[in-house]
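ASSEMBLY PREDICTION REQUEST
Request ID: AP-0331
Submitted by: J.K., bench scientist
Number of chains: two
Total residues: 227
Priority: normal
Notes: Please return the full assembly, not individual chains.
Input sequences:
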Amino acid sequence: AQSVTQLDSQVPVFEEAPVELRCNYSSSVSVYLFWYVQYPNQGLQLLLKYLSGSTLVKSINGFEAEFNKSQTSFHLRKPSVHISDTAEYFCAVIGDDKIIFGKGTRLHILP
Amino acid sequence: SAVISQKPSRDICQRGTSLTIQCQVDSQVTMMFWYRQQPGQSLTLIATANQGSEATYESGFVIDKFPISRPNLTFSTLTVSNMSPEDSSIYLCSVVGTGGIGETQYFGPGTRLLVL
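STATUS: Completed
Returned structure:
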């Protein structure tokens, strides 16, 4: 069965500093991986996804994630965060025709 | 893409009552999902609702507690029955795009429920 582990429930980081949100998965079949973002008082939105091809995927707002099969990871990174990145980030994997979410990581941007 | 709306956006309810949450999608979709997001927890799938058939419930969720209707391809309701404070949560409706496996899953804005 597929599963997703987000090791950090909260990550505080200073504005303009880099950040990495960790995600590890387990899957016995082909892997489709996602990062979703939930801004305060808003619904979930897809940030980026890996289906196949290049292992490095990027979003339009500067986030990127790299699929690492040997380490079963799909960590999310951004070289310089902004206050507007304050949100909860969910890693997810597709398994058994349904999407399975991690517990989420709350990103706190410190001024 | 799919635009999803939910009603109500939030509610405060008394113990023992029931609340029906509506989900409307701007396009026809085969599969709709209902999730629960409890404070500090991940999203938990409650059930999958396909038009024209009974909803499929995940382990730990039963139809008597969370009856679901799916009368057409753009609409679904989830009822939270005989509520208790443990049902306080955000309830999310979701659909999958028509591209098949790996297709983006879209979420409604959620219904914030507080049970007193």
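REVIEWER COMMENTS: Chain A has no helices and twelve strands.
SIGN-OFF: pending second reviewer
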